[in-house]
Amino acid sequence: MLNVGSHCAIGGLNIDFLINIVLLGFLVCTALAIVFTKNLLASAMLTGIYSLLTAGFFVVMDAVDVAFTEASVGAGIATILMLSTLKLTGFDEDPARHNVKAGLLAVCGVGVLLLYGIVDMPVFGSPTAPVHMHVAPHYIYQSMAEIGMPNIVTSVLASYRGYDTFGETVVVFTAGIGVLALLGASNHVPQSRVAPMSQHIILRVVSKVLIPPIFLFALYVQFHGDYGPGGGFQAGVIFAAAIILYSMIFGLDTARSVISQPLIRLLSAFGVMLYGCVGIVSLLNGHNFLDYSALAHDPLHGQHYGILLVELGVGITVASVMILIFFNFASRVDMVQEEQ
Amino acid sequence: MLNHLPILQVILPLLAAPTCLLLKEARLAWAFTTACCMATLAISVMLLLQVIDSGVIVYSLGGWQAPIGIEYRIDSLNAFVMVLVSGLSSAVILAARESVAKEVGADKQVLFYIAYLLCFAGLLGICATGDAFNVFVFLEISSLSAYTLIALGSDRRALWAAYQYLIMGTIGATFILIGIGMIYMMTGTLNMHDLAERLPEAAHTKTVFTAFTFIIIGTCLKLALFPLHLWLPNAYAYSPSIVSAFMAATATKVAVYVLIRFVFSVFGVDFSIDHMPLQQILLVLSLIGIVWVSIVAIYQTNLKKLLAYSSVAQIGYIILGFSVGTVLGLQASLIHLFNHALMKGALFLAIAGVVYRIGGCEFSQLSGIGKKMPWTMAAVVVGGLSLIGVPLTTGFVSKWYLVSALIEAGWWPAVAVVMLGSLLAVIYVWKVVEVAYFGSPEDGYEGAYEVKEAPLSILIPTWMLAASNIYFGIDTRFTSTIGHLASQTLFGAGS
Amino acid sequence: MAYLAQYNYWVVVVLMMIGLYVVVSHGNLVKKLMGLSIFQTSVFILYISMGKVDGGTAPILEEGISVYSNPLPHVLILTAIVVGVATMALGLALVVRIKEAYGSIEEGDIQEKDKQSC
Hints:
CATH architecture of chain C: Orthogonal Bundle
Structural class of chain C: mainly alpha
Distance between the termini of chain A: 60 Å
Order of helices and strands of chain C: HHHHH
Largest sheet of chain A: none
Oligomer: heterotrimer
Radius of gyration of chain C: 20 Å
Strand content of chain C: under 5%
Number of helices of chain A: 12
């Protein structure tokens, strides 16, 4: 798509920018709808829509990897978790409001401060903004020579800033540990009482048809991240989504008998360890932590191996933690229903 | 391996955490965690010696030079804070086994130690890094694990405290993220050293001003500066005792470090102190905080909560020294950072012993406890004297430097407030002493007669910290030298 | 038109205010978390908007394309999204436990019960 010129000019409203305006408009409306909806179930569904709209906006902004993540993580996993929580806590919101004045004051303060900050921001989309001048050109023009992968986001994510991604994997692991500590089943796991949806023949057949392609797609996303959008995070979430779909249709017990809890726990730790061990191997080879050039004679090959391995580590941890979190929320629902 | 110390410092506990998941028994997990903390302490001491010896150490992660990649940049300031964090974490974890066994459910104990390691690693990661965004990532590791640790408290109010902390903490972290985004927007870099070089060009813009404000508010939320401290008292009071000790001794200190790092190393002295009303605002907030929160502390009837409020007041002293904006003031801040960690570490560990024996620390339960648990309560008294600032304790050293910095700047009213704060501390410490030594056990609860001294495994680490309160109160060479070195470097870098 | 040029940043401000308002003034704990997620998303939009270059394409190298959008904000926000969902999961787990312990997830009720037990 050719650039029509600076959009400050009169004819500057190109189609991308129009879509951008409309999408963000929808986004604000959805946010307001979330605020004013009294029914929490409806609000939760609206947050799903909100995430999808955000993902759409990210695509318009050329951030395809981010859009992919937002769609799978924000619209998928977050919504499922919210719905399972609401199942346990009830769907109605108390209309009473607290600290309205203090809240409005704080909100207005933040708003005014931000508006003040916007005044001096570089014009949106300007190619000469400082953001695009310093570090970014190095990634865009050198990454092919230094790392050899078409997807720059993967290069930056897994290698240039691989340590951030390591930290991020640990964050996911931490969340898994936290949920386990809070909701972890005590000694007995009750027989699942939640009626699986397997009596719905259409759901059963469709999901049986769908699940294998979902797994296949997860693998594609996992290993194709160097060429197109995708990588460990997205693949992990998609993989987990297939398992979650399976356990929703065929019941938690069936899913648990397929995937044992201890195994999932081990895998969540294994992913982090795999990532860390790649770093340790570079250390032992005399290079700095996470310097993948140390992994093979040819630095470029080293980078390939390194990125492949760390993305695998990320995928394993993300998938297993997501499954772990879902199982723990779901068995809580079972426990409560058993008590009733 | 010696040149890899900066990274080993962080990844040792970080990789120990998933390894710990393989251990089935709480006892093993505890031993493993303790060994890791000790090893990390050794590394951090070696690192400090290296820094003193040879100056700033730069370590490029992934072999990519900053600002293309992320770097670790160790100078005397963060080496000092890392020694503090790993030292206190080691002392606290030493005492943890029996206390955790009593306060945390049997099936949650291994998870407790994993979360402890993660939180510890996150805090070290925040200190070591030279990259602004990396701070955010490690901040979240330490925060998420801290929420988990707090929620493991046996009282249901622990859950509510953890939730409130989660909300406030996430808002704080997101504010920091906005600030980092805006300075990135104006400079095109995320590396702190690089930012310091490129920010002056954009320093006059409103965007940088906004970014600065967001980062300051965000860190002040995290370090619980009055009036943003509301999450802290409940979080400290209802979490497991070991967690109270750990958090009080390390987490807020690291948040103070982040504030110092951003103000001095990223934005620079010229910008932060000369162009911004930061000094005045922090001065006023810290003074009001010291007086107001100390008064609130006096009215508490729960020992942990009393100390939690006292922590907020003590943070006021740290920020007060910082807001003077001179080398001496910053030195006073850093000294108090260290000393306060020792005081609160000793006090909260002693309370862990009390809670272990009597199951709580409401004043009504503590009546006459001084006779039943003489050693534990003696440690509380030492810590309390240090809080007040009695000579021969670390508290005196802190106050001495703080007051000299204030006098040097000619801020006499502030000196008066510091004295008032000490008087208020006398009152709340006296309240504890009165209950513990002059109350009779009959007024306490029924089992008070059978109460014994805390187990040695808790008592020994408690006394290690209590003794260091006295040691560093007499021999001030370590704290004052490092404090001076660090604050000189920070001011030198800015001008 | 000059105002419209910064349209994305205006939206960021609006979303941030909406999110923060929900967090502060709504009493329902799940709703608060929803507000928190709106608040965080606004920051994601800020970052991604600053990475956009007029006429640029997604930062995946291809023959014949010379203008790419900035990949670095994408990487940062990918991280932030995952951190956000991790926080959300932990927050929801806390809400479930609070419901079990207090029997309610309304802030007012919980504070009321805490006062009574004191």
